[in-house]
Amino acid sequence: MSQNAGKHRSHMGGLIKYANGESLQEINGTVEVPKNLGFWKTLFKYSGPGALVAVGYMDPGNWSTSITGGQDFGYLLMSIVLMSSLIAMLLQYMAAKLGIVSRMDLAQAIRARTSKSLGIILWILTELAIMATDIAEVIGAAIALNLLFHIPLVISVFITVFDVLLLLLLTFIGFRKIEAIVVCLICVILFVFAYEVILSRPEWANIFRGLIPVPRAFSGSNPAKVSGDTPLKDSLGIIGATVMPHNLYLHSSISQTRKYDYNDPKDVANTVKFTTWDSNIQLSLAFVVNALLLIMGVAVFKNGAVKDTSFFGLFQALSNTSMLSNGILIAVAKTGALSILFAVALLASGQNSTITGTLTGQIIMEGYVHMRMPLWMRRLVTRLISVIPVLICVSMTGGEPAIKEHLALNELMENSQVFLAFALPFSMLPLIILTDSKFEMGQFKNRLWVSILGWISIIALTFLNMQNFFGDDGAIVGFISQNPTPSQVSLANNLSWFIIVIIMALLIWTIYDMYKTSKSLRKEYPNALEARQENMDK
């Protein structure tokens, strides 16, 4: 069922407005796609939204996880990177299809089928997840500015606020140009890591063998420990950092930027087809970037050489010749090129995430609470809130040795990602319920194999994220202490159970509301599906 269009009225003085129409109305259906083009020309016209989605899979928060996995276990976890990317492709396909077929983004679709009170709760949860992602972007961009231009960290953090000016500029140049800028920045990131990996001369045969899953990749036993971690812990880190809830909201909206005839089933099918091609190609590039990061951990550095996997630690390691694996890398490192390129890639990644994070924030605000504000204002509010914990962290460690400040920032970034685990089930579960429904999707409902793989992926990701809360190195205990006592670990485990109970209760509430509303819609529009099918058959 599609949402009624239009209807915007001023609210709260003019800057903030009521919104209950098309998703991201300013760019919805603005990109023309001429008919009767060949496959490659048509694909080029549809290319772009997938790049904005792929940015989330190259987020700075993923970097240390992948490099640590390579340092600890060689190419063992390459299969985990591959599986995570395949799951991402499946979920992003469903998100894009939902937007194209229903003409609603995921936030609008969930809100239309849940109560107002639940909608506000889900909005707050998703906002927290976006702010958690933004904290990683603030840290990454501030550190990149510090490393490249030697700007003090506090000032660098404040400078990141002014990326709102970049958003203000981008609002005037058109969505197609925004896509092009994002693609260029992705190419910068890809080039940097490909260059450094090529110089390292990795063992390609072992890399390809690592793509084959083996049970040891999920081992949590003591004999498998390297540098204090187990393969299971590093696998959880890679998987947990891969699928971001905000990407599902984003893709369900920007998949609607192409102009198509939603009353023509062939045109809808064609749009779904080429949007999926675009998404899979761009996510394949994201897989290559994450694989290159893991390969860096194996081939660029000597085994076990990198003890500090913070951005500062990696920057210093790339200029420390004693940590590098061969003479070519050492020769290039002496020029400072390796470390400088790393910092440039970090800055590019942060700016990419600025664009996509702002768009996603607007999508969920419009979808869940029907509120719209200018993109620059939306960015300013989110960024000002996100810099507060970073400034507190920098201020509290200002008088400490540099290593303590670096580790504290790394810890803040890792802990902020816990909110992503909270929000993830509330985007994945409604997504598969909606796309499994023939009433919602008609002939475009998920095929049986897509549905089975989707449910397996969602249950597995939710379970792994929840499991990561527990233990003496779990996500929750990190909020209590860096060196927890047994009593603190016990407290963290109890808190984990409490949080999981709340998450399960909210999930049950969400499922109940969605099925209840869907049932009432079927009663209200008993012939809707038949009418749609008749239109499809014309």
Order of helices and strands: EEHHHHHHHHHHHHHHHHEHHHHHHHHH
Amino-to-carboxy terminus distance: 19 Å
Q: Kindly state the percentage of residues in helix.
A: over 70%
What is the oligomer described by this structure?
Answer: single chain
Return the structural class. mainly alpha
The total count of strands amounts to: 3
Subcellular location: Membrane
Main location: membrane
Membrane topology: Multi-pass membrane protein
Pfam families: Nramp (PF01566)
Please outline the helices and strands.
Elements: E1 8-10, E2 17-19, H1 39-46, H2 49-55, H3 60-73, H4 78-102, H5 106-112, H6 116-149, H7 153-161, H8 164-170, H9 175-200, H10 204-210, H11 231-240, H12 245-254, H13 265-300, H14 311-317, H15 327-333, H16 337-369, E3 371-372, H17 375-396, H18 402-416, H19 418-423, H20 425-436, H21 438-441, H22 448-467, H23 477-480, H24 486-524, H25 528-537
Antiparallel strand pairs: 1-2, 2-3
Helix pairs in contact: 1-13, 2-9, 2-12, 2-13, 3-11, 3-13, 4-12, 4-13, 4-20, 5-16, 5-20, 6-7, 6-16, 6-17, 6-18, 7-17, 8-17, 9-13, 9-16, 12-16, 12-20, 14-16, 16-17, 17-18, 20-22, 20-24
Features:
single chain; 538 residues; mainly alpha; 70% helix; disordered N terminus; disordered C terminus
Give a description of the structure.
This is Manganese transporter. It is found in: Membrane. It is a multi-pass membrane protein. Keywords: Membrane, Transmembrane, Transmembrane helix, Transport. One of its GO terms (cellular component) is plasma membrane. The protein is mostly helical and 538 residues long. The protein is built from 25 helices and three strands. A three-stranded antiparallel beta sheet has the order 1-2-3. Helix 2 (49-55) runs parallel beside helix 13, helix 6 (116-149) packs across helix 7 (153-161) and helix 20 (425-436) runs antiparallel to helix 22. Mean pLDDT is 79; it is low at 1-13 and 531-538.
